[in-house]
Amino acid sequence: MIDPYLYPESDVLRNLADIRNEETLREMEADYTLSRLSDVVVADSVRKFDFESLCELHYSIFQDVYDWAGKPRIINIEKAEVILGELSIEYSDCFDIARDASKVLDDMNHTDWNRQAFESIVQKFADCLARLWKVHPFREGNTRTVVTFCCLFIEAQGIYIESELFKDNAIYMRRALVAANAVFHDLGDLRKMEYLYQIVEDALERGARMKENIRDQIKKAGQEATEQKIRKVVLWNRRTHIEHTAEEIKGYLQGC
Ligand SMILES: Nc1ncnc2c1ncn2[C@@H]1O[C@H](COP(=O)(O)OP(=O)(O)OP(=O)(O)O)[C@@H](O)[C@H]1O
Ligand SMILES: [Mg+2]
Which domains does the chain have, with CATH numbers? Predict the structure, then answer.
């Protein structure tokens, strides 16, 4: 089948810089997307978590690289996975993308995350992340988009997560997502969830510790540690790459 996303007789994705070499494109894509991603995680601009916002996030990250950024794929895809002996995950059919993604997003939006014990937050969050990833809504860039989107979503619930862990362990993370989605129409259910649960648990634990530290610093600064203030300080620390002291936080919150 002809893949309209590729240059003719090549494996290189058509791109805005018209780069025809796979390695050069990978480097250019990594540069632009890392910069866009670092802006996105401190922008605090995603308010709704529906399929449209997922597409908008893909656009935000990939707008410099592909003219189809933000648009769901129009072909079916397969990606050979080393850990599956070159088999591919059975990603959603391109005609079912919006429906399949919305099902998971509805489930996420209708869950009362703050009423759950830590262990069930870990499992439920990892399950939703895996299900949304299995849709693979875009021709490329699904892992970066879906992982970032789910992290923004859970933080919007006041549950913090150290998303750097996913970025710094990208190969492990991709394999964990593959293992969590190894269900095949002919081979049956070969899923292994434990790898994904493990890294999600670590990231949520670190996020919870960071939130506690910031709560303490705000109290030390003589202020009431509301969710809104905690969020402000989290984003400030991330923007500046500094863990601010109680004294600094006091000045910052007074100036807000
Ligand atoms: N959460 C993340 N944050 C930042 N960079 C990531 C993240 N996950 C993966 N990457 C980086 O993105 C690049 C491409 O990785 P990969 O192909 O596995 O994911 P993707 O392109 O986002 O998704 P897919 O290929 O499944 O559509 C790699 O260089 C990887 O290090
Ligand atoms: Mg990729």
Answer: 22-255 (1.10.3290.10)
- Calculate the dihedral angle through the C-alpha atoms of 105, 154, 158, 44, rounding to the nearest 10 degrees: -90
Q: For the segment 139-191, what is each residue's pLDDT rounded down to a tens digit?
A: 999 999 999 999 999 999 999 999 999 999 999 999 999 999 999 999 999 99
Instruction: Indicate which ligand has the atom closest to the C-alpha of 38.
Output: 1
Task: Take atom 13 of ligand 1 and give the residue whose Cα is closest.
Answer: 30
Number of helices and strands in the chain (H, E): 10, 2
Which residue's CA is the closest to the ligand 1 atom numbered 19? 143
Which is nearest to 121 in space by CA: 187, 204, 20, 207?
204
Give the count of beta carbons closer than 10 Å to the beta carbon of residue 246. 14
CA nearest neighbour of 196 among 178, 176, 179, 172: 176
E strands of the chain, at which residues? 183-184, 188-189
Work out the number of other CB atoms within 10 angstroms of the CB of residue 198. 14
Taking the model in full, what pTM does it have? 0.97
